[in-house]
Design goal:
This protein is α/β, with parallel strands linked by helices. The chain has helices at residues 47-54, 154-163, 181-192, 208-214, 224-227, 241-249, 297-310, 312-316, 328-336, and strands spanning 7-13, 21-26, 35-45, 65-66, 71-78, 90-93, 107-108, 115-116, 126-130, 134-137, 173-177, 197-202, 217-220, 231-236, 251-259, 286-289, 319-324, 342-346. The chain has two domains: 7-153 and 318-346, Quinone Oxidoreductase, Chain A, domain 1, CATH 3.90.180; 166-290, 3-Layer(aba) Sandwich (Rossmann fold), CATH 3.40.50.720.
């Protein structure tokens, strides 16, 4: 389908370990099979984008490219092949595959040349998104539209870790490394489910007040050894191999270590007494990795949508800062310095 020619702003990564550049992009002349044009209403910055900028997975062959993978917007145009949404629908933009076609990733024109994009990108005023990376939702009020992007990554990942990839036990002790977007939502959802013992560990004391309001124990990483805590489940959202190693040591009998954050490429993970992995019934520790909580947008979006809005005042607190797109690098800096939990971008 032909598109009306439009120029819009987008935050683009040109070089790893450098700031994003906010530049003008041009829409292509037409939408391809499985593509949807979304006007982005709000987006948020995920830790995955910080890792992308830092190049934790190694060299990035797609540079320069657009960024972001969780957002909330409205459908402006769609390919005739798209059946799951229509023009005027409000949608959550997510990186997990849902229903519909897997459209071709777009390439935008700019004065800097061609700019690549994935199946979903959200740090931009308009985005061409694959049909299977959006899910229709009800229009979200002005009071909560800045929280809505959490439905694209942070909440479904957290919910899925607790429900799809692991079996919740209200009487078990949970320790979460990292008080960012995923770590905070993990703790919040665990609290909503009335898990009795939840500990969040982070190096930034500035986040302590957020968890205190929720009635969740916060521990600075420097004080963790003094606490002498033994837990049943350790969930690492940082990808820090030293913390992962420490987490293994904090597990009791039959404990489980869940790895959510991805370590930097070629990092070395050291585990003290790995025999604990092979010594039942005295010990039988398990290590698992998370795949986005195995969240299925088509089948489970309604569940987390209802969970969020039933507890919307609590989830609204996860958005600690709101910025405009032009201030994207300030938002990233806030996260890196531990001054923010989740930063929302309003358009």
């Amino acid at each position: 389908m032909k598109l009306q020619q439009k120029t819009f702003k987008s935050a683009v990564l040109f070089k790893q370990n450098h700031k994003l550049k906010v530049i003008n992009l041009n829409l292509p002349k037409k939408l391809e099979k499985g593509q949807v044009l979304v006007k982005v209403i709000s987006a948020s910055i995920c830790g995955a984008q910080i890792g992308e900028i830092k190049g934790i997975k190694g060299p990035d062959k797609w540079l320069p490219h657009c960024m972001g993978h969780e957002g909330y917007g409205i459908v402006k145009e769609k390919s005739k092949s798209v059946k799951t949404v229509k023009v005027g629908d409000f949608v959550i933009m997510h990186w997990r595959k849902g229903s519909g076609l897997n459209g071709k990733p777009p390439v935008y024109d700019s004065k800097f040349g061609k700019i690549n994009a994935g199946n979903v990108t959200t740090f931009q005023e308009y985005s061409i998104v694959s049909e299977n990376r959006i899910t229709k939702v009800k229009k979200i009020s002005k009071k909560s539209y800045l929280t809505a992007p959490l439905l694209g990554c942070a909440i479904p990942t957290s919910w899925g870790i607790l429900n799809n990839e692991n079996k919740i036990d209200l009487n078990k002790k949970y320790l979460i490394f990292g008080a960012g977007g995923v770590g905070s939502n993990l703790a919040l959802i665990a609290k909503i489910y009335r898990i009795k013992n939840i500990f969040v560990v982070d190096k930034f004391n500035s986040k302590k007040s957020f968890f205190k309001k929720l009635g969740i124990d916060f521990i600075n990483i420097k004080d963790l050894n003094k606490k002498k805590i033994i837990v049943d489940n350790v969930i690492d959202t940082t990808g820090n191999t030293k913390l992962i190693s420490l987490g293994f040591n904090l597990l009791g009998k039959n404990g489980k270590l869940v790895l959510v954050g991805q370590p930097k490429k070629n990092e070395i993970l050291k585990i003290k007494d790995p025999l604990r992995l092979f010594n039942p019934p005295s010990d039988h520790i398990k290590i698992s990795t998370s795949d986005g909580g195995l969240f299925n947008p088509e089948k489970q979006m309604k569940t987390i949508y209802n969970l969020m809005f039933k507890n919307i005042k609590k989830f609204n607190q996860v958005i600690s800062h709101t910025i405009n797109l032009n201030d994207i690098n300030k938002g990233i800096e806030l996260i890196q310095k531990g001054k923010a939990i989740r930063v929302s971008i309003k358009f």
